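Weekly structure sync, notes
Attendees: PL (lead), two postdocs, one rotation student
Agenda item 3: pending single-chain targets
PL asked that the sequence for the first pending target be pasted directly into the notes so everyone works from the same version. It is reproduced below exactly as submitted, 70 residues in total.
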Amino acid sequence: IPDADLRALTCPTLCVYGEQSGCLPVGRRLVAQLPNAHLTVLPAGHYLTVETPERLTKVVVDFLAGARDG
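Predicted structure, written out during the meeting:
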């Protein structure tokens, strides 16, 4: 996706990656281009739902609560 297209997306966006995931650079790029994006990096690899499900759930619930309240 071109950077200009990403910059046009203004909805709140949560990007969650594991610190050892090979996809983390993609998350960093997304957060740099999406105007309302938040990056959370968890102490895990690529499979967050398996490696750290409780932390992932908390991050998502907190994000959604903030989106609802804000």
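Discussion points:
- The mean pLDDT is 95.
- The CA atoms of residues 2 and 33 lie 10 Å apart.
Action: rotation student to compare against the earlier draft before next sync.
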